Amino acid sequence: KHWDIWFAKRESTDDPFIDPENFGSVINSEADERFPFLSPDSLELWFSSNRPGGLGERDLWVSRRKSPQHPFETPQHVAGGINSEFQEDSPSMTSDGHMLFFESSRPLPRDHRAFERIWFSTRKP
């Protein structure tokens, strides 16, 4: 048994959600996909997974789409030193999309203990 990412839609914030749907094999794999985050512009779906191709226990992955009306593309392993051989989870982003926050169990320099700590990274506009 594994974890999958699901979504539910609604016409407006005043309406109830329609029955949830599984994202299917484009996003979900035979591994665990957890902690989804949709970017403020709705063009990136960030999540954590232990799927093949990662560096550690769970890594951050991102799937992009051209517009909110387009489907999400094949997820890509997040580069740039975000992932480690430890566990990365719970991605979140500032409203301008320039700062990413996430949890990681990697130890701090000079500290050999691994705890879940909040990390951040910035990207250029």
Which structural traits does this protein have?
about 120 residues; mainly beta; four-stranded antiparallel β-sheet; three-stranded antiparallel β-sheet; 9 strands; about 35% strand; globular
Structure description:
The protein has 125 residues and is mainly β. Helices cover 0% and strands 34% of the residues. It contains no helices and nine strands. The strands form three sheets. A four-stranded antiparallel β-sheet has the order 3-4-5-6, with no helix packed on it. A hairpin with a 5-residue loop joins strand 7 and strand 8. The mean pLDDT is 89.
The backbone outline, from C-alpha atoms, is: globular
Task: Name the helicity range.
Answer: under 10%
**Helical stretch tally:** 0
What structural class do the secondary elements suggest? mainly beta
Strand content: 25-35%
SSE inventory with pairings:
Blueprint: E1 6-7, E2 21-22, E3 33-38, E4 44-49, E5 59-64, E6 76-77, E7 88-93, E8 99-104, E9 117-122
Antiparallel strand pairs: 1-2, 3-4, 4-5, 5-6, 7-8, 8-9
Summarize the structure.
With 125 residues, the protein is mainly β. It is built from no helices and 9 strands.
